[in-house]
Records
---
Amino acid sequence: MNTPFPDRDRIDAHAKVRGATTYAADAPFPGLLYAMTVPSPVTKGTLTALDTEDAAAIPGVVRILTAEDFAHAVPNGTHMGAPPPTLETAIAYRGQPLALVVAETLEIAIEAAEAVRPVIEEEPFSALFSSPGAVREPAEASHVGDTEAAFAEAETVIEAEYVSPTQHHNPMELTSTTAVWADGQLTIYEGSQNSAAMRSAVASLLGLDPAIVDAKSPTAGGAFGQKGWAQRQTAIVAHAAMLIGRPVKLVMPRAQVFHVATHRPHIVHRIRLGADASGRMVAIDHDAAQQNSRQGPFPPHYHEAAMRLYDIPNYNGTAMDVRTDVSNPAHMRAPYEHPAIFAMESAIDELAVALDRDPVAFRMAHDGTVDPYTGQPYSSRFLNECFTEGAARFGWERRTPAPGSMTAADGTQIGWGVSAGVYPALVHPAIATLRITADGRTRFAVAGHEFGQGIRTVLANVLLRELDIREDRLDIPIGDTTAARQHLTAGSWGSFSAAPAALAAAERMRAALAELLDGREIGGTIHQQLATIKRPFLEVEVTQLGPGQDAATLEQWQNYNFAVTGPAYPGFTAMSYIAHFVEVRVEPRTRRVRVPRVVSIADCGRVLSPRTAQSQVRGGVIWGIGHALREATETDPRYGGYLNCDIADYVVAVNADIGEIEVGFIDRPDPLANALGAKGLGEVAMVGVSAAVGNAVFHATGRRIRELPIRIEHLL
Amino acid sequence: MQPFTYVRPETTADAVRAFADAGDGARYIAGGTTLYDLMKLRVERPRHLIDVTAIAGLDAIDTSGDVLRFGALAAMSDVAADPVVAGDYPVLAEALLKAASQNLRNMATIGGNLLQRTRCLYFRDPGAANFPCNKREPGSGCAAIDGLDRGQAVLGVSDACTAVSPGDWPVALTAMDAEVELLGPGGTRTLAVADLYRLPGSTPHDEFALEPGEMVTAVMVPKTPAGAASTYHKIRDRESYAFALASAAVALEMDGERVTRARIALGGVATRPWRATGAEAALAGADLTPETALAAGHAALEGATPGRHNAFKIELGARTVADALLIAAERSRA
């Protein structure tokens, strides 16, 4: 815990840049068939007939699956996020798959899918948050203290509404599934964060014994939450492979991914924030209303982190679903924290301006040591250290407070903004096996998925520090139900849960080896030691539990594919923190906003892999800039669905949009979270960035833009 | 996608003949960066493709004479990298380099680029929603006019269509009085680039002043010292790899601080490459200052018709012209 980890190269970097990494859709199979879905052209209605005659007549079409191929009732409970993965006749959103065409080539599958003619009885629909017919449904609230009494005493009150638009994850890797049914075993290859759910959803939907289903997602090409749950197409493709008896692959076109996979919903945050006569924040009303689908299970839990951002003793958090005719929203990187903290840190900035306080000093004055929601102490909290370090590196003391006061000679307006970010430190149990062989190999199998965040490099860094083993023959199979029991890798608990298991396994390995050597002194690597004593291999297994987890947690994992706890643990609360400092430059005439530099300092406890941790934060900052200045999925309420459903018109940030991003870490171990002193990082990295950008735009221009993305037209 | 035939003739004469022989549904194809994309979206449904990329010599770049002559098959990246273009005609080089990505510029040809079709989302319809679109399905109506029209045109619009002419290169060519050389069943002719594009009017599907079977064989730009005092200024929703919200191609002839002749064309805001002759006239003889530049910008947008969400383009277009004029004037001093 007390030694920083070395800056190891990403262990899969060379394979990735050489194009050698095999993603799910790359796996070759003899006799592979290609599938294409038939998307619903309407937003709501009932499919009354499906004319497949012309499509089926196209040479090379093997089979067309329809809702009639899915008589099996759909169980609820384990398939959160995406809708039940079958074909149905009730149409709930534009783009819903109505049929699956399977053919000898991709081109034939596309041609035939376009030739399928659905007959649909259309119904009226509500496509927008603000549409007539959108049903407002109050959800679970979170309260601390007595805000009403506190507001009665407040001297300064800020009240405003902050809007975060619908967004899509857009990982580079498209949604895909390849299913192989051979020798009584069904194997699914899919870019996923949740091979456990792939297996259980397919088994339950197709009525199979889970023992004959395996799921493999060794490397996903980006996921960001979109690949966290059982996906819509998985069981459909699996069913096709079993009916036909040949491997079947579906890769969804980008426009279909927009419609069929999940998204971050449109959210309206209403904030009322009060300070007392001494300028101390005393109360906040925070209402979060999110657009949801009619039946979607994604809950509006926007307060868990927001209420722990600063020491504000009275917090009234309310939430609402606005039910509309859209596909299901679900988790997208920092799903709650990112929009909620955008709203809160914007409001706090407005309050600091109203009180004529420096935005950094004002925030630092509201640090706390106790979780206001539980009354428990924080395990560690170095947010103020993040502010201090970030301000020093950024040069914050050179900032002049008045909006528009930092103008360059050519009229370019310069603005400096700040924000904190916070994210719960969540943990999942892990069962891991570690095998070291005399011929030089090491294999560490555990629950987890690699989607670019660097979990394999983290695990390698722990194992190679703890054990004298060969780096070049270290194999870390993850995302594979044949290698270890799998879970949902999300919520920044992936590395945070697997790395302590790697440490525990290494310790057990050392103990097992010592027992085997029985006092003999043998030099060399563990491989050489095993060779000397003529043992072909040594294997250990560990079950790693987070603080307070027990057998019941393991049983929950077995039953629901994941079992996560935190941030409130017995006796303490654990959170990760970050502070972002952003410079924007706004052009004098055409009002383009540029972000030449960002400084972000994170407190994620002990940093397990400096290289991939820095990448995580840079990526998070880029996501935050995208959220602040670029991205929004747009819906024409007359048609429903998504209009800009490709990555030409859904504007993500490109290299030219990104300036210098300096990343730093406090790198002090959390004493209670686990034996490594580590906490999660992947999501806190982006929390608060969009607020810091918006606050910088205000500082540059005097314009407070409360609806994202901030675009040229808002500043002309 | 639907099946199509494919031929790859080796001479222009064979290409024109192949087109005529193919009958309905024939299309020439060069780099394919637009046509394949639109075929996948089902917007273009050709029955026959005549691939012209095997025609020898059609990619020649010749800057030795009184005109810059670019063969239609010259890659966008090659023209942008030509020393004369890069050195003496920044408006042309910038228009090419601010378009698309390097991968696309390596494939796309400067002839095919002239015939790129609009990026209007209701026209492209990537989600296969079958929006009414008078360009895609003549007579079906226009979903954009009463829809999400932030990206739509404010100049040259009609009741039938407000789709933006998407190109950058055609805007620069329009400002520089360029011509295209065309070859068809009736022989060779030349046409001003400015006359290649039709206003949408009541027939927005009829976009180009081309006879059936005509192909672009070359682009010619008259040489002028104004080329050096020029720029293509492009404002978009991100800094690269995006179409223009507003753009301006500007070239100046200056006498000290006084403008003797200005060439101004607009992109991103109009239904065709938009030569702003009124703004040019207003500027002729005037000193170029930030104020006169902005006044010229406003003159360039005169007569603009805002839609529901794109009124900002009128002011943005004017300011883009102003910035472009100031950049070009700076270059005239170099």
Note: Chain A touches chain B at residues 39, 41, 94-95, 107, 110-111, 114, 253-255, 258-259, 589-592, 594, 630, 634, 636, 638-639, 641-646, 648-649, 651, 653-657, 711-713, 716 (CB under 8 Å).
---
Amino acid sequence: MQKKYSIEVDCANCAAAVERKLADLAGIESISISYMAQKMIVEYADGVDESTKVKEMLKVARKIEPDFEIEA
Amino acid sequence: MKLKRSQKRDLRNILIALALFAVLLLVRHLLPELIWLHAILAVAAIYVVGWGVFKRAWVGIKNHQPFDENLLMAIAVLGALILGEFAEAVAVMTFYQVGELFESIAVGRSRKSISALMDIRPDHANLETDGGLIEVLPETVELGSIIVVKPGERVPLDSEVVEGVSSLNLAALTGESVPVDVAPGDAVVSGGVNLTGVLRLRTLKRYDDSTVARILELVENSTMKKAKTERFITRFARWYTPAVVISALLLAVLPPIIRLSALHLAPMWGDWIHRALTFLVISCPCAMVISIPLSFFGGIGGASSRGILIKGSSYLEQLARADTVVFDKTGTLTRGVFEVTEVFPEPEISSEELLRLAAAAERYSDHPVSESLRAAAGPIAEADTASDAHERPGEGVLAIVGGQRVAVGNDRLMKALGLNPKGVLAAGTLVHVARENRYLGCIEISDRPKAGAAAAVQELRERGVKRVVMLTGDRKAAAQAMAKELGVTEVRSELLPTDKVTELEALLKQQAKGKTLAFVGDGINDAPVLARADVGVAMGGIGSDAAIEAADVVLMDDDISKLPVAMRIARRTVAIAWQNIAFALLVKAVCLILGALGIAGMWLAIFADVGVMVLCVLNAARALLVKNL
């Protein structure tokens, strides 16, 4: 399942770091963050609950970039 | 210039800090012995402008993600304060924030100018209902609805004209500024602006499947497919910062120890720590990390304003390195429309007469060949009324024209009639004509090259494309004649659609390392080939789902001369990215060396850091300017 989100991320370096961290999460097949477009595309593994995953991603991302936001 | 709220806040903080900085310099000059006052002013300024940096640094430590520029800046500034370098401490923090603010503004502007370039999103549709016209969101319009587009409005959904005549400006889609005329029965794509008349349209697609939505989606997603250069720089940033930090640590500790133990000199701790702090200020890879994606984003945005859609930064890079371009012939280099190119009459008849006869006999046929004959012959006279026409599939037509039996067709038809057609050396398809069993001559019909195709091939060569190959299903003679006209040197003819993939794979094997192969097709029968090539370029993206789907680059208006343009944009974008990398690395390297030697202090370091970023960002912004490419 592929999903696209609008995100808020303030620096290019943090975007890259967040992308790296989120890619390691279980249940995420691949992820791409575009700092320029402020968009994130996530490919979930089968059977993953999206809303819990989004919460988890947000938590991980905010450890690196406290102002990180995910909008549907 | 409009700033976001957070940007305004940052700007205000910077201005306050600068004011405090000025006071600090003044106080230092007038009252040099009041150290405690200097310290208070410096701390106040740093607090105002840099509190966020310290907060982020702390969050990083707490989450075991310490190596970010916030922490480094925090250490450098604290270090400078402890060493009593108050002015430097304030300057480092303030100019670092100036750089951050500039970055944020530049990115915002670039994003805005690209969305302005891609300003094709319709805001409403005028839906025709029983209760008259109502304005609705394009997303809510059902398939087959009737909508009305007034002059000045944007066509919201892909539709068909039911009523009305007008011209449409498709510049935002194709980069082509000449308006396109439409009349009832014509298909219109969403995104075009209606210029003259009111149009009633029946929608053919829902908004999500319409051209506009697909293009917007594509451009938005294009930055997701990151270029190798981008990946290189994020990987580089990952070890660059820790490496500089470790060097800084060694610089602070090793030289004093060596001086003390081996050389029996004073250790000069303060001096070396100062140099180490200078290192930390240079450790931020910001200039590169921001300017590389900014360049690619600009290149993609600029290209789309010229009617060239590039589906990812990586394809921009691939296109820049292409040294082999493979063309599919029909619909790409040629128009895919047949035309009479030459008439070879027997001595007893004139060319016009021969054409007239052939056209009359073929009058009722809708074969493309017949159409081209009729187009060449002009209006058919009453006397030439054909009757009793019947088509012989795969051979031609037999008909009675002006009371005489006329046969128009290929070699096989002539032979079946017991005639011996003249062998003419021609590149195109030959149509023979006979009357009352007498051979009268033949007409050559061929596909015509697109305007600008030869020039495009020529330009590709001038831009360093080494091999230009044409693939076609045509006969060898026809293919070679066309290739010669276009200036293409390598031809693979008489290919079936499946052979094209095999040919392409053979060509891919012969590619030099680091160079790529681009395939250009019309996206109709060549999806597998488009997908197999390093870069698949599809012609005529408008309305053709297959092309948008399979290709990496879409030339929106069928115009082959856009290919060299795309290549120039790609090359320049990549060049800009590398200029930025080289420039930033060079300046940082020089600053690190000067810093280690104690020649450059923190002042130079922070100006170099912010200056490099500003210059790189401005350079990256050039990628967006593609008007004259």
Note: Chain A has two helices and four strands.
